[in-house]
Every structure is written in structure tokens, then in C-alpha cells.
Amino acid sequence: MRRDQIDDVLSTLDDVFRQLGVRGGFAEAAAEARSATADMTTPAARIGMILAEHLFRQMTGDALSALDWRQVGTREDLERLLTIAPDLTPDDFRALDELKALPIRVRGSLTDVARQVQPKGGHPMAVPRAEYAAICDEIASLHRSGLTIGEATRKLASKWGCSQSKINQIWASRASQ
Fold this sequence. Notes:
By secondary structure, this protein is mainly α. It has nine helices and no strands.
């Protein structure tokens, strides 16, 4: 591969990993990927290595798809592998362009996921909504056995570990269930 193409690949990888938050760029991400613990300290490095490997395997021509990413432990290792690789094809250049856009996509996707998993605010429910019908049935059963509605709701409140007003609220909403 020509020197200018090697420089293009290396600078693209460095830029991508720095944008993903890996300060040392590709070299740091590759070192973390090859560490004995196999646990990367920065999730961005792991994400970047996985995406780069996938992108190079799936979307590139002969020059980049043939790279064995497990052999790439340092920037020098990558440079050595690129030196013996054939020149970049148009597919390789397209893959590099895709890789340049990767950090923006990853950041956007992570933001979307974070929005979806944020818990809703407020106090946790004392009684699951699925149990409302069973509570109403139990109140009716206790009332048929001779207890007043107030005594039945008091008894169920202590059983469920919630306030009597919550049981009264469930009882009042029985028509909408």
C-alpha cells in the first residue's frame, strides 16, 4: 500500500477513536483490546474496535478486509500490516468515509438509548396495577363475610403494606377495571 494511503487509514482511525473519547487514539484502543484482562477500561475503545473490525470486514475491498485485527496491538503493527497490503480500492475509501462518520452515529445512538432507559420519575407504585382486580375481589369477599368496607380496606392496607387511602382509591376505581 502506498504511504499516503497508509497515512490516511492511520489518521482516520486516530480521529475516530479520539472522537469516541479514547485520548490516545487508535494506539490506546488497540493496546486495550489486546490486554490480558480483555476488559477495556473505556467502553468507547471497545465499541470503536468492534465497529472498526466489523466495518473493515463487511464493507471494504481486499486491502482492508484482509487485516487480522487480533494481530494489531500497536500503531506500528497496523502500519506494518498496511505496508504489505495491496493499494486501497474504492470500497476501502468508502469504508474509511463511513468510519469517519461513525463517532457521530455512535454518540447519537447512545443518547437515544439513554433517553429510552431513563426511569420515570415519581414514587414507586405501592400496589401493582395488575393486582387491583384481586384487591377489589378480596374487599368484596370480606364485605360478604360481614366486615364493613372500612374494616376490609384497613385489613388489606396492612396486608399490602400501603395506606388505607390507596386501597380506597383502588376500590373506587373498580368500575373502570
